[in-house]
């Protein structure tokens, strides 16, 4: 499946459905799936992703961010989840993302969300 692909950009397409866990297992540099109608949770296996830019904003994001996200500290520079109806939590490990230069969680509230996170080291 497209072994040379490094940059996936399918944003602003009104796509619906689930996002397969396998997407986050690909050796991609950047994933842009924002502004669609996806409903998904981030898989535990995301910590194996070499992605530097992850933009999943304006979708229906469910569950908690995996705490293994901290394993992406050496590669992840941009994490944009704004307006994603996040129904779970952000783990304290998000503060360990030492190379993160952009973190946008603006308007991540579906009316039920209460962020539970210590952003201490940001």
TrEMBL record:
Pfam families: LRR_1. InterPro entries: Leu-rich_rpt, LRR_dom_sf, LRR_extensin-like_regulator. Its main location: secreted. Gene3D superfamilies: Ribonuclease Inhibitor. The keyword Transcription does not apply. It is found in: Secreted. It comes from the Eukaryota. One of its GO terms (cellular component) is extracellular region. Keywords: Repeat, Secreted, Signal. The keyword Signal applies. This is Uncharacterized protein. It comes from Kingdonia uniflora.
């Amino acid at each position: 499946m497209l072994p040379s692909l490094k940059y996936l950009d399918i944003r602003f397409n009104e796509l619906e459905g689930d996002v397969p866990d396998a997407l986050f297992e690909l050796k991609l540099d950047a994933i842009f799936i924002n502004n669609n109608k996806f409903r998904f949770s981030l898989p535990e296996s995301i910590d194996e992703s070499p992605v530097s830019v992850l933009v999943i904003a304006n979708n229906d994001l469910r569950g908690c961010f995996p705490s293994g996200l901290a394993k992406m500290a050496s590669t992840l520079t941009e994490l944009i989840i704004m307006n994603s109806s996040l129904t779970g939590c952000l783990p304290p490990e998000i503060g360990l993302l030492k190379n993160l230069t952009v973190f946008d969680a603006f308007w991540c509230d579906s009316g039920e969300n209460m962020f539970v996170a210590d952003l201490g080291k940001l």
